[in-house]
Design brief:
about 290 residues, alpha/beta, Carbamate kinase, two-stranded antiparallel ribbon, about 40% helix, about 20% strand, binds adenosine-5'-diphosphate, binds N-acetyl-L-glutamyl 5-phosphate, kinase
Length: about 290
C-alpha cells in the first residue's frame, strides 16, 4: 500500500527542485549569530541544513558570531562588556579573548558539528591567507581594537569551496604588527558576501526580522527598501545590535548581492525555507 507520508516527502523534494537548480554552484553566505546558537538542538538543525545545501551543490559559506559566548568569557575573567551602537569596546586584553572565543572555541565547535552531520568543513579566521585586511575603525567614539575591513581576499574561501569544503569563518583579523582586531560578524559577512559575488546573504538571528516595535514580534517588516533605512534609524526603530545588521544589509544590496535577508534562527530549518521555497520569512532588503 502507498504510504502517504512518503508521497508528501517526494512532493516536498520535487517542489524544492527549481530552487536547487537556481542555486546550483551559486554562493550563499550565511551569517549565524551568537544569539541563535544558544540551543544545541537548533545548532544541530542549522548545521544539518548547511550540509544539505552543500550536498545539493550550493556553495554555502558560514560566517559566525558568538557575542554571548564572548560576554560569558569576559565575565569569567572580570572584564565588563561595553557596547556602543551595537559594537563591542575592545581593548588589547578583550581582543585576545575575542580571538580565543571566536577563532578557537566557537569556530572549532561549528566545524566539528558540521563534520558530525557528515559535512566537510574548514575553519578559517580573517588572518588565514590574509583574508581580511583591517585597520582601526574611525568614528566619533573610540572603540579600541574594533577592525574596519579595508580589503577582502576571497582566495582562501574559494580554495576551500573549490575543494569541497564548507568554509567556516571567525571574524577576527590581525594587522601587519600582529595586533588582533575584533570585527562585527554582520559587517564581515556583508563584505565577504559582496567580495564573493554571492547570490544570497542570510543573517540568522534570534528575532523574526526587523520589527516596527522590537518588543512586539507581530510587528515584522517583511520588506525594506534600502532608501527607507535612514528614516527608520531616525525614528529609532533600528537600535542596538540591529544597527550593524541593517547597515550591512544596505551595503550588501548596494554592492550587488541579489538577495539579502534577516531570518529567525529559532524557526527549525529556516535556512531551507528561505533558500528552497518561495515562502518569505523574516525581512528582505531590496
Ligand atoms: N527594530 C528591531 N527589530 C528587531 N530587533 C531589534 C530592533 N531593534 C533592536 N533590536 C535588537 O537587535 C537584536 C539582534 O541583534 P544582535 O543581538 O546583535 O543579534 P546577533 O547576535 O544574532 O547578531 C535583537 O535581539 C533585538 O534585541
Ligand atoms: C566589534 C564587535 O562588536 N564584534 C563582535 C563580534 C562577534 C559578533 O558579532 O557576534 P554576534 O553576531 O553573535 O553578535 C563582538 O565582540 O561581540
Amino acid at each position: 500500500m502507498l504510504d502517504i507520508s512518503n508521497s508528501i516527502k517526494a512532493q516536498v523534494l520535487n517542489d524544492a527542485l527549481p530552487y536547487i537548480q537556481k542555486y546550483h554552484d551559486k554562493i550563499v553566505v550565511i551569517k549565524y549569530g551568537g544569539n541563535a546558537m544558544t540551543s544545541e538542538e537548533l545548532k544541530n538543525a542549522v548545521m544539518s541544513d548547511i550540509v544539505l545545501l552543500s550536498l545539493v551543490g550550493i556553495k554555502a559559506v558560514l560566517i559566525h558570531g558568538g557575542g554571548p559566548e564572548i560576554n560569558q568569557m569576559l565575565q569569567k575573567v572580570g572584564i565588563e562588556s561595553k557596547f556602543v551602537n551595537g559594537l563591542r569596546y575592545t581593548d588589547k586584553e578583550t581582543a585576545e579573548i575575542v580571538r580565543m572565543v571566536l577563532a578557537g572555541k566557537v569556530n572549532k565547535e561549528l566545524v566539528a558539528l558540521l563534520e558530525q552531520h557528515n559535512g566537510t568543513a574548514l575553519g578559517l579566521c580573517g588572518s588565514d591567507g590574509k583574508m581580511l585586511k583591517v585597520r582601526k575603525m574611525k568614528g566619533d567614539d573610540d572603540l579600541g581594537y574594533v577592525g574596519e575591513i579595508t580589503d577582502v581576499d576571497v582566495k582562501p574561501i574559494m580554495d576551500a569551496l573549490n575543494n569541497g569544503y564548507i568554509p567556516v569563518v571567525a571574524t577576527v583579523a590581525t594587522d601587519s604588527e600582529g595586533q588582533v582586531y575584533n570585527i562585527n560578524a554582520d559587517t564581515a559577512a556583508s563584505r565577504i558576501a559582496s567580495a564573493l559575488g554571492a547570490e544570497n546573504l542570510i543573517l540568522m538571528t534570534d528575532i523574526r526580522g526587523l520589527l516596527r516595535d522590537k518588543d512586539d514580534e507581530t510587528s515584522l517588516i517583511p520588506e525594506v527598501n534600502v532608501s527607507e533605512v535612514p528614516f527608520l534609524v531616525k525614528q529609532g526603530i533600528i537600535s542596538g545590535g540591529m544597527i550593524p545588521k541593517i547597515e550591512c544589509c544596505v551595503e550588501a544590496v548596494r554592492r550587488g548581492v541579489q538577495k539579502t535577508c534577516i531570518i529567525d534562527g529559532r524557526i527549525p530549518h529556516s535556512i531551507l525555507i528561505e533558500i528552497l521555497s518561495n515562502e518569505g520569512i523574516g525581512t528582505l532588503f531590496k
